[in-house]
Structures are given as C-alpha cells and as structure tokens.
Amino acid sequence: MNKQELLKKFGKNVKIERIKKDLTQEQLSVKLDVNQNYIACIERGRQNMSLGKILELSNALDVDIQKLLTFTSD
Question: Is residue 71 part of a domain?
Fold first, then answer.
C-alpha cells in the first residue's frame, strides 16, 4: 500500500463513520473546529491528518480510533 492508497482508505472510513452518525461534513467540521473543505479533502484522500487530529476525530465521531485506522482490501 502506498501513501495515496492509505489516505483514500482512511478517508473512506471517515466518511462511513460520519454517515453512520448522521453528520454532515459541515457538522463534523464544527465539532473539530476545522474548515468543511478540510473534511471533504480528508474523505477524498487528498489531505493528511496528524495523529492528534485523528484522535480528535475519533472522539468527535464517538468511534474507536482503531476503527478509523483499520483497512480492508478492496
């Protein structure tokens, strides 16, 4: 797996968990105090997140961080 594949798989996990929580990108961006465009870029695999922000994201989504960082083969 290369970096781009990793970012896309992570973004897919973020989107799945956000939708499960019935949150819009805008609502999630408010919870994280970031721009909505940042969330969109994460979900598209175009933006890298720091470990600290990933922890904040897992808390905002009320999901175990491991769930966001577990990738299945497509």
Answer: no
The string of DSSP letters for 6-60 reads: HHHHHHHHHHHHHHHTT--HHHHHHHHTS-HHHHHHHHTT-S---HHHHHHHHHH
Residue 60 domain boundaries: 3-66
Q: What is the CATH number of the domain that holds 38?
A: 1.10.260.40
| Number of structural domains in the chain | 1
CA triple 41-46-48, angle to 5 deg: 90
Are the C-beta atoms of residues 68 and 36 closer than 8 Å to each other? Answer: no
pTM over 0.70, yes/no: yes
Stretch 1-23: mean pLDDT, rounded? 96
Q: How far apart are CA 18 and CA 13, in angstroms?
A: 9
